[in-house]
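Hi all, posting the design record for the shared folder.

TITLE: backbone redesign
STEP: 1 of 1
STRUCTURE INPUT:
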């Protein structure tokens, strides 16, 4: 099912980081009725509010981006909340799609759902080969279970739902708050603050050996838009950059681009998460023609420049 340009597309989390970029992409593609949804519009953890929202907006398509997210520290400290919130929000959305006969549902998963010892690069079929890394398991399992629910609703009710698994996202508009930021945003902020406050060093968790697959936000939005139009398979689909980068390499690259000249100190008493994360994106290339267009150094440059503009008029040391 390929939606026509007049389809009413409801995007949960549509005013957030990825959501804003996706809504802009859909509008540029000619979609005339894109409806971004935020927590101020509807509390997705309350089924009655979700159903009322669906009744009001009458969506043809739903793209479920909204999630409770954070870095490793937040995942460890709020494991119960991340498990509950992501489970209940997704369940309410899927059930509302059934009740209101939504024509297509796109659910966004997470690379955290894959087993800690999954093969590298990781294919979609490895989802059930083991348990995720403990630091982010609560979040990952909650998202994994949403694929099960979407698969079950397809079988019983004929709900056309697809499940996409993006890698670690970054880019302009990312969360730079210490309690919400992931590694790229966190490093950019720390190095910026250290430079502005003449601090001699920046401390980074782990030893720098862990690797990640970093996907620029506009590339992720492009992949979702392509899947919306061209993918209707029940099998999950990876969206990644095609490049594996160590945290040490990343920190050095951010320091160079941001002109940070202090020391990078590795705190090996802190958790680092899964040792390697890097997705096999061959199916996305074959099924929807997806290829990430943004090289890491260019994406970092755009992100650092955006952050500098946002923080230019902030008090020294603050965001």
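Okay, here is what came back for every position:
SEQUENCE:
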């Amino acid at each position: 099912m390929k939606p026509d340009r007049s389809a009413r597309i409801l995007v949960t989390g549509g005013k957030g980081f990825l959501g804003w970029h996706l809504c802009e992409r859909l509008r540029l593609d000619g979609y005339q009725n894109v409806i971004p949804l935020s927590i101020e519009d509807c509390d997705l953890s309350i089924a009655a509010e979700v159903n009322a929202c669906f009744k009001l907006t009458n969506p043809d398509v739903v793209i479920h981006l909204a999630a409770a997210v954070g870095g490793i520290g937040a995942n460890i400290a709020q494991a119960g909340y991340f498990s509950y919130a992501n489970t209940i929000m997704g369940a309410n959305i899927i059930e509302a799609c059934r009740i209101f006969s939504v024509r297509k549902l796109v659910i966004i998963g997470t690379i955290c759902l894959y087993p800690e010892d999954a093969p590298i690069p990781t294919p979609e079929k490895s989802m059930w080969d083991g348990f995720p890394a403990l630091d982010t398991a609560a979040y990952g399992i909650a998202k994994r279970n949403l694929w099960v629910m979407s698969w079950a609703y397809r079988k019983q009710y004929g709900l056309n739902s697809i499940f996409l698994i993006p890698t670690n996202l970054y880019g302009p508009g990312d969360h730079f708050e210490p309690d919400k930021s992931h590694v790229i945003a966190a490093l950019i902020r720390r190095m910026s603050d250290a430079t502005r406050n003449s601090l001699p060093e920046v401390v980074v968790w782990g030893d720098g050996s862990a690797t990640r697959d970093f996907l620029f936000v506009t590339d992720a939005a492009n992949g979702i838009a392509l899947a919306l139009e061209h993918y209707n398979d029940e099998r999950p689909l990876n969206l990644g950059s095609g490049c594996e980068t160590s945290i040490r390499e990343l920190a050095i690259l951010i320091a160079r681009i941001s002109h940070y000249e202090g020391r990078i100190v590795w705190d090996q008493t802190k958790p680092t998460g899964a040792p390697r994360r890097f997705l096999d994106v061959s199916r996305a290339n074959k099924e929807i023609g997806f290829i990430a267009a943004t090289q890491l150094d260019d994406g970092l440059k755009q992100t650092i420049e955006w952050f500098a503009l946002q923080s230019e008029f902030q008090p020294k040391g603050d965001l």
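COMMENT: The chain has ten helices and twelve strands.
Let me know if anyone wants the other runs.
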